[in-house]
Amino acid sequence: MNELKIREGFNQCADRKREAHSSNVFEGYDLSMMLKEMKNGIEIGEEAKQAVKWLESMGEQPKISIDLKYLDDLKMKGGKEARTTWLPSLRAIVGTIGVLPYGADKRVVFTVVNPEIQIEPRATGGNKKFHGVIRFCTDKIELKDLVAEDSNISLLTH
User: Fold this and answer.
1) Which end of the chain lies in a sparser environment, N or C, as judged by fewer CB atoms within 10 Å?
2) What is the pLDDT of residues 21-33, one digit of tens each?
3) Residues near 2 by Cβ (< 8 Å), separated by ≥ 6?
């Protein structure tokens, strides 16, 4: 079931492939080239937006991670809600695309399989560039839109 939802999201992203390659500065790149660019950092703005579109066109899907101790809270709330960031006036749900979320080895990683949820690149790191961190343009990601990468994790509330 988890694999099927991820595959469905991949197929929906594949339709964006032609659009992303038509006028993208990353045309001709492969994934290893893109990851190298992201490691160094991509300028925030149009170039970072094109990088996100390119990653989506290659089948990459956004991910979030949650500490296992908050899994019951996620189920109770019916999904992942935006929370205050280091800027008190900004609420956001943050994730990654093309790279694993920070602390993924100690947390539960979820793929966000709803391609209707818009994402935008975020500036991070000492150089304040795009390194794969994104913001979801929504206040909540519903449980139905999250697929755990660990098939032993279930978000079913029954």
Assistant:
1) C
2) 456 789 899 999 9
3) 147, 148, 149, 151
